[in-house]
Amino acid sequence: xxxxxxxxxxxxxxxxxxxxxxxxxxxxxxxxxxxxxxxxxxxxxxxxxxxxxxxxxxxxxxxxxxxxxxxxxxxxxxxxxxxxxxxxxxxxxxxxxxxxxxxxxxxxxxxxxxxxxxxxxxxxxxxxxxxxxxxxxxxxxxxxxxxxxxxxxxxxxxxxxxxxxxxxxxxxxxxxxxxxxxxxxxxxxxxxxxxxxxxxxxxxxxxxxxxxxxxxxxxxxxxxxxxxxxxxxxxxxxxxxxxxxxxxxxxxxxxxxxxxxxxxxxxxxxxxxxxxxxxxxxxxxxxxxxxxxxxxxxxxxxxxxxxxxxxxxxxxxxxxxxxxxxxxxxxxxxxxxxxxxxxxxxxxxxxxxxxxxxxxxxxxxxxxxxxxxxxxxxxxxxxxxxxxxxxxxxxxxxxxxx
Length: 402
Ligand code: PLP
Fold this sequence. Notes:
Layout: E1 6-7, H1 18-24, H2 26-29, H3 41-60, E2 68-71, H4 74-88, E3 95-98, H5 104-115, E4 119-122, H6 133-139, E5 144-148, H7 162-171, E6 175-179, E7 198-202, E8 213-217, H8 246-284, E9 288-291, E10 301-306, H9 311-317, E11 321-322, E12 324-325, H10 338-342, H11 347-350, E13 353-357, H12 364-383
Parallel strand pairs: 1-11, 3-4, 3-5, 5-6, 6-7
Antiparallel strand pairs: 2-8, 7-8, 9-10, 10-13, 12-13
The structure holds pyridoxal-5'-phosphate.
């Protein structure tokens, strides 16, 4: 039986998996010790559980537990990484290379660095949102101290060639950070193989609780120097002080353990539902265009532009389905999507774009309902829209923008 509203905003956040919640509960009521308390059993138990969780998280990205620093989420991890590298390596140079389609946590960190005199180089994103490794190679010079490139985009799902980018950075001896928030737990991410030096990710995007995330810092020589953004009792190797959020860490660890085991089956199941949604909407409607790479894309992402439709009007008419528009994905303010603009989408289509983010708990029945509802409402809105003409002579295959 269908239950409303139907949740299709899994890039924004995910429901906590019941198995994760179950693992967390004793750490609120029974094992509520402070992991930094060294004098009694409550503290020892909490510490042991935290270290086990750290191991599970490290395991998911093929790293060592000692390379994981707990933070409040990916925003904090990204700030810790980017600002820390900028501050500690400025004697070598002041250039940081990134892309225009990073999450706001990255883009706003660069704005603050620019104010301090750093030179931020934004590589192009192609029409699919891909970064060209050759362009990166050409942009690196002796002043470059950091390359930071998003692994999988949160709006259009495009997956960058991170292994190639990591290889170039390693060859050029430049530190490489990636925002892997949408990727970790969904697709295989191997910090060693991909030659990643720093990586940010978050629990609440992978069926874990909110308020906990991680920064992976490669422990390989030479040691990477960062500056704490929060000072205090010296927790997390002095990089992030504050009493550890034990229940959240346990949940994060459990979420990683589940994702590692179920990643392949989940990819198949959710990917099939996403393809069904994509193919049916494009087949039943004219003037619908796919944003993001057709293949190199997260299996749970579908970002579509509906010609002649205001995304916000469509969202209001499908209130029993939770999706997001291209204007509200990554920030608390409503602004046209910087990602869709950067990939060259005309303003009109930027404002006509909707992101569907599928997840673990979606069903085929839900997707069937969403297809019918979206098609019906788009047709209704177009019937009253002077901006849309069904007779438009289309020169591209269905779903593909000219
Ligand atoms: N980076 C990406 C790609 C994201 O999608 C998000 C969340 O929207 C973040 C960073 C920020 O994550 P958090 O909510 O854990 O701070």
